[in-house]
């Protein structure tokens, strides 16, 4: 059996007859890279179960019925009036989707497609609207005192006299956080709204009210038959929502709580991610410049309880290179690869991204030229994968690359090359004479050392001359492979021209 964390969890869960993995996020703001860990963790366990031949289901529940908690910095001031209203009933602050929650869900769901994650998607308000919560709400209201006792003893929080596990949605002002339950009979809950004074009744078979989070979660386990659930460490504290959820699940809903998979946070360049503080990076944006394989590998290569740091810049380049270097013959590496790959995109990941970064800079983004350069290096991509890999490289360069990595091959001899020392020009001449099509990047690299030795010049100076001759700057990508990638004939001609100047 493999040692990969997802395989181990899958194996552990094999004992249960039905495997249903649930994940969920509240779409109250931009869904960021930190939130992504939840779905990717679930997805990898799901795939590990399928690999074991188990029958499994993978769910994603968007908490669209949650209220807007406060006026986030990205919201217009008038949205103050929507605080306390369910997200799916609030208009899109940007005017492009049917609701607030859809605005943030839409790019996230598109990102899931790109990440090769395909859960069954639920919106929490629809589960209520379909009446799926009827029995759970009934039991919660009938067991109000018992639940209050569980919450008080476990979470050490005082539950107020008029507290109810069920919060009716005020039909008058639309808030779900300001009503008080007066009575319950049949399918109806009588309530009074402390915000607007309205009194009315909610049908528990409709989306006219919801269970509080700590009850909603265990109720959902039973309704959707959840047996495995990844969740953030904030829910896993002593007296936290998993702690109380477990007891409520067993004692109120007679349901065995799901196997917990607790994951750590992902920080962004060393800072905790937070949508409200603006320390965030949306998955959708990142996926325009960073291949999904890299994000999958970030999650796949570390156990869920390990804190991760994400940096879309140089670290991402390293991440993709590490992924590229994985040896399929090693059992753990082969599983990491399996969980990082995108179905149907198997070739592009074989082209080192660092190489691709150089290729698109040399070809200036021209696909035909990129194709020729790649083929010279033995990489054959079909049109789609070539276009995608090249787009990622171009966007990454534009959005996240440090200046030191960017270069532009000079179409004609740079003026700065004229003032190179005589012995450096002689060095370029000798390199030019010895370059030939059959040489590998490594051969060329070694040859540059040889030439420097013969002339008694510092090899670092000769490398500098190479870069000045081609890029009009003193540094660049590893010279041997770079010369080969730019094209032997082009380089021969350029070096000869400089030697004769
Ligand atoms: Zn929108
Ligand atoms: Zn009201």
TrEMBL record:
An annotated Gene Ontology molecular function: lysine-tRNA ligase activity
Positions of short motif 'KMSKS' region: 272-276
InterPro entries named among the record's database cross-references: aa-tRNA-synth_I_codon-bd_sub2 (IPR020751), aa-tRNA-synth_I_CS (IPR001412), aa_tRNA-synth_I_cd-bd_sf (IPR008925), Lys-tRNA-ligase (IPR002904), Lys-tRNA-ligase_SC_fold (IPR042078), Rossmann-like_a/b/a_fold (IPR014729)
Keywords: Aminoacyl-tRNA synthetase, ATP-binding, Cytoplasm, Ligase, Nucleotide-binding, Protein biosynthesis
EC code: 6.1.1.6
GO cellular component, one term: cytoplasm
Pfam families xrefs: tRNA-synt_1f
Biological processes annotated in GO: lysyl-tRNA aminoacylation
NCBIfam families: lysS_arch (TIGR00467)
Protein name: Lysine--tRNA ligase
Organism: Methanoliparum thermophilum
């Amino acid at each position: 059996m493999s040692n990969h964390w997802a395989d181990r969890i899958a194996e552990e869960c094999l004992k249960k007859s039905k495997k249903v993995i649930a994940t969920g996020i509240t779409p109250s703001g931009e869904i960021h890279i930190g939130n992504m860990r939840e779905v990717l963790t679930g997805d990898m366990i799901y795939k590990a179960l399928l690999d074991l031949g188990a029958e499994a289901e993978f769910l994603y529940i968007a908490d669209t019925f949650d209220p807007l908690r406060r006026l986030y910095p990205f919201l217009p001031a008038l949205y103050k009036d929507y605080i306390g209203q369910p997200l799916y009933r609030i208009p899109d602050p940007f005017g492009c989707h049917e609701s607030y929650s859809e605005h943030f869900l839409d790019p996230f769901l598109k990102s899931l497609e790109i990440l090769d994650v395909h859960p069954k998607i639920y919106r929490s308000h629809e589960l209520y609207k379909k009446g799926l919560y009827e029995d759970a709400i009934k039991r919660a209201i009938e067991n109000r005192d018992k639940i209050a006792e569980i919450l008080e003893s476990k979470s050490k929080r005082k539950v107020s006299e008029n507290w109810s596990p069920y919060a009716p949605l005020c039909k008058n002002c639309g808030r779900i956080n300001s009503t008080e339950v007066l009575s319950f009979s049949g399918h109806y809950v009588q309530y009074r709204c402390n915000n607007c004074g309205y009194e009315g009744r909610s049908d528990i078979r409709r989306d006219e009210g919801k269970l509080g989070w700590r009850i909603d979660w265990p109720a959902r386990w039973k309704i959707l038959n959840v047996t495995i659930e990844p969740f953030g460490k904030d829910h896993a504290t002593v007296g936290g929502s998993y702690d109380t959820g477990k007891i409520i699940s067993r004692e109120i809903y007679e349901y065995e709580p799901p196997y917990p998979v607790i994951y750590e946070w992902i920080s962004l360049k060393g800072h905790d991610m937070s949508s409200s503080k603006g320390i965030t990076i949306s998955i959708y944006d990142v996926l325009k410049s960073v291949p999904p394989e890299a994000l999958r590998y970030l999650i796949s290569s570390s156990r869920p309880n390990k804190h991760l740091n994400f940096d879309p810049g140089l670290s991402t380049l390293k991440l993709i290179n590490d992924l590229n270097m994985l040896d399929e013959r090693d059992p753990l590496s082969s599983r990491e690869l399996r969980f990082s790959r995108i179905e149907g995109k198997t070739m592009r990941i074989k082209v080192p991204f660092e190489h691709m970064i150089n290729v698109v800079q040399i070809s200036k983004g021209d696909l035909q030229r990129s194709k020729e350069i790649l083929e010279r290096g033995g990489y054959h991509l079909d049109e789609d994968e070539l276009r995608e890999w090249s787009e990622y490289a171009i966007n990454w360069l534009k959005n996240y690359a440090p200046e030191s990595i960017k270069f532009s091959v000079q179409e004609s001899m740079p003026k700065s090359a004229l003032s190179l020392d005589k012995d450096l020009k002689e060095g370029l001449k000798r390199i030019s004479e010895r370059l030939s099509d059959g040489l590998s990047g490594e051969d060329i690299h070694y040859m540059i050392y040889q030439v420097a030795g013969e002339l008694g010049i510092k090899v670092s100076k000769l490398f500098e001359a190479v870069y000045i001759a081609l890029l009009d700057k003193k540094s660049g990508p590893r010279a041997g492979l770079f010369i080969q990638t730019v094209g032997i004939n082009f380089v021969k001609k350029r070096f000869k021209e400089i030697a004769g100047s």
